[in-house]
Design goal:
alpha+beta, Aminopeptidase
Length: about 220
């Protein structure tokens, strides 16, 4: 999990193309999203978040452990306030983009629960600097360790690249070793070490990547 961050200046796009772990999907596209095969972690279904996901977002938050909630929001909350849920689902899909993730394998099982979120990933830019985006990522505890974080990071990089975002900034708690490892594995570097020692800020310069997967964001939103 990773929390919301402050704004920053832009940098040039990486000159060097890197290999990202972008899974494949099936056609035709629909508003229900696409199913991605993430290897040993199974299959996930991803789509852009909708305003109608407010109740599902509150339910997903309730399934996060206290530790995961703290790592995402940097504070202890027993429940997600309605006003926050509305703000996090009623987005413009231009400066604020959010992918919601479902367990495709669980959905396929008899009696499986559709539309039960297992992760959410966001990129949030400011109007004064649309080339920089803040990263936010949360994965329900029962689904951590499946490789969802790696798949989402690659999906966010592709989404950033196609939308001319040059830098992704991430604030994370120093205790969140898994998130720090994920950021560093994609080339992020620490740029700010907070005075209290609890939070570290990372910059991730968006590389030249295959933008095809990032294009899915708007394509799914417009799909029948």
């Amino acid at each position: 999990m990773i929390g919301p961050l402050g704004a920053m200046g832009s940098n040039d796009r990486h000159d060097e193309t890197i290999g990202l772990r972008i899974p494949k999907w099936e056609l035709p596209l629909s508003r229900d999203g696409v199913v991605l095969d993430i290897g040993a972690g199974g299959r996930i279904r991803v789509r852009p978040i909708r305003a109608t996901d407010r109740a599902a977002l509150i339910e997903t938050f309730a399934r996060l452990s206290p530790t995961s909630r703290h790592r995402r929001f940097f504070s202890q909350m027993n429940e997600l306030p309605e006003i926050w849920a509305e703000k996090l689902t009623s987005i413009d899909h231009s400066l604020h983009r959010a992918w919601v993730v479902f367990d495709a394998d669980a959905e396929a099982e008899p009696g499986g629960s559709p539309e039960q979120g297992v992760a959410i990933a966001r990129l949030v830019s400011q109007a004064e600097d649309p080339t920089t985006a803040e990263l936010a990522l949360a994965i329900v505890d029962d689904h951590q360790g499946r490789g969802i974080g790696r798949a989402l990071m690659d999906l966010l990089l592709s989404t950033a690249a196609i939308n001319d975002i040059d830098v992704i900034r991430a604030d994370t708690l120093r205790e969140n070793k898994a998130m720090i490892h994920l950021l560093r594995s994609r080339g992020a570097v620490a740029v700010v070490d907070r005075s209290d020692g609890a939070v570290v800020s990372y910059d991730l310069r968006v590389p030249n990547v295959d933008e095809t997967t990032g294009a899915l964001y708007d394509l799914i939103r417009r799909a029948p």
